[in-house]
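The pair is quoted verbatim as follows:
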Amino acid sequence: MNTVSRKYPRAAIDEPGVMTVRASDPKHPARRLSIAIRSISCEGAGLVLPEGRFPLERRSTVTMDFRAGGHRFEIPGVIVWVADSAASVPLDVGVRFVLAAVPNETRQAYAHWIVDLLQRRGVTAQAPAHR
């Protein structure tokens, strides 16, 4: 059995959104991509790009824009993993949020929403496995 140990609990969701990807080369414009958020935690999200592939790289900076719990969230982040494109259609991507970069009001709204979501879903934290 293959299990993944995470620092924070994650809830399965199905929410649409938009991810703006900033190019590493300032000569290229940022690109807005439709996404579907499939899982979410207090520190990030797992998502898919349902409209096809787009070349994404780990450590690319992004901004996630989505609505949940009656709030609109616009949260910057960093791509931390991208599934092997040959093995994943649509493309699976992991984003770590940079909540320190958002206004305090947004950060608090997100914290209340995610804690409430996790409690409603009965998701509990598991201690990371020791290696």
In short: Residues 104-121 form the longest helix (18 residues).
